[in-house]
Amino acid sequence: MNYGITFSPFLSLPLLIAVGVIALLLAGLLLASRTRGAVFRALALAVGLLALANPSFTREEREPLTSVVAVVVDKSASQSFGERTQQTDAARAALAERLGKLSGVEVRTIEADAGDGSADGTRLFSALSAGLADVPPERVAGAIMITDGRVHDVPENPQALGFSAPVHALITGRAGERDRRVALEKTPRFGIVGQKQAVTFKVTDEGAPAGARVVVTIRRDGEVIARPTVTAGRSTSVDVDITHAGPNIVEFEVPALEGELTLVNNRTAVAIDGIRDKLRVLLVSGEPNVGERTWRNLLKSDANVDLVHFTILRPPEKQDGTPINELSLIAFPTRELFQTKIKDFDLIIFDRYAQQGVLPQVYFDNIVRYVRAGGAVLVAAGTDFIDTGSLYNTPLEEILPGVPRGEATDAPYHARLTDPGKRHPVTRALPGSETDPPHWSRFFRVIDAQVRSGTNLMSAPGDKPVLLVDRVGEGRVALLLSDHIWLWARGYEGGGPHIDLLRRLSHWLMKEPDLEEERLKLTISGRDLVVERQTMADSVPTATITTPSGALRTLTLTQAEPGLWRAATPADELGLWRATNGTLTALANIGPLNPKEFAEVTSTRDVVAPVSAATGGGVWRLADLGGSVPRLVQVSASDRLAGEDWMGLRTRDVSVVRGIGLFPLFAGLSGLLLLLGALTAAWVREGR
Known about the structure:
With 688 residues, this protein is an alpha/beta fold. The protein has 13 helices and 38 strands. The strands form 10 sheets. Strands 18-17-19-20-26-25-24-22 form an 8-stranded mixed sheet. Strands 4-3-5-6-35 form a 5-stranded parallel sheet. Helix 1 (13-32) runs antiparallel to helix 2. The protein is elongated. The two termini are 47 Å apart.
């Protein structure tokens, strides 16, 4: 119970001071002139002035508050190395027991970086600030941190803590720990396909003699491309070939150092996005036809495609006596295109092309070799495919996936996706295919052919193939057995998804990674890591996920749509993730290339020592204490808050007001009696 007195003046403070000055002058004049009753008159003036100040007696009921001690537990990934988890659990239990015996102490246990991989590095002081956000600074008795000492948000100024209390640290791990790590220093984000990009990295041995010679294994998309021997502690650059469009995953791995703490940071990876300088496409139209505009518009609309288009208007056998120098037609540069520069093209398209003596047989041999070496050919066939001049009657026969039967069926039909077509990336979920019949216009011709190899993606009634794709050696071939795709482009009967189909087909032929039939992909979606598997199979095995800390997770993939399987797992760690599914491997890096959490993993006292010393706290290594923790001492006034075997907590004398009583002295009858008493005393004394 606390008592006091407060004032609530009836007048403003300046006016009350003015009245007080006047009263003081009057009292001084009365006393100086020795007027009878001057003392009592001065007393009456004082009582009147006091009444204007409106004093009140107060009575407060206070309840003492507990002191708050924060125990910050480091739950970051580096705390799982060695014996640190066991040391942390033991220290946490011992602190809880000892703090529980202290009177007037409230314990707040704060787990930092627990299950959250969004922050780069260990941020214990941010967690401490958030955990004490609702606690007044005068209630904080101290903070105790259980950590390996690798803290990345230590404040430079102790005033930034927001409280005046000691910060103690209990360090897990052991002195003299060893670790080897590989870190990327300079990495390009993009690279031109077919060119080299330089990547700079450095191998660091911590706790071991410098200058060791280390063999580094460098992989691109899982394939070993180099094994250079480097010197630990020195930066090294290596040139990496960008072999394909899309992410080229370049991985660096170093062997273990004898007795090292962890292998987590012995490997790292960077994804270099391959960009094609230009996709060069050669389009050869055997004759003017209504469909060639569809191909031309499609390819010219893609800014990344460099199109070379020739339409054969005048075959060599046409002889009408017109002098050559009077012809405005451009001669077809067959030798330049199909012999000297054929390797420069990513795709060759034959649109309704028939042999007319334009291309000698030897050039078709060149095309076959071009495909087997990694090139691509698309044959958009019409009735020319069943004539005597058919491309099938050339050396291309050995790479084409369909054999013409010698006739065509002219009847309206809806081209439907086959079962493999529903799973293949070229035709999977093709807009309009979800209905029966498909929501696209009909074709009116199909070239009858027998499937010899490859995959039939679309068919006509009677299981007649409409679209065949195949892999030949390192290259790819596609055969479109209808010349009515232009009906979709013209909007006949509502048209159809000609842009989606032809663009996917062209890019599959040019080996676009996203259109591979068998592909494993890792992507980040919010706080989840999504595993996506493309396959032509009816089922897929379980996927194995390797986290940056080395833990293994098994995921069962579920079918999202035909040919596409997915699963997700929480992305709760920063660093390099690896997924394997069957023979396929995918990598994804979450956060920075070199996460602070794994940059330095050996335990240390040096990082938190400055802030602990500035606040009067101490730093102890748990291994040196034999598994125990320092004893706790409550300190009220001393500046020394830590010793070799004890840690101090400030004693706080803080309370909260639960009730208050107020009695105005000059309110009501009591005030009237005081004023009358003073006036009466002055009158009586003056009347004597």
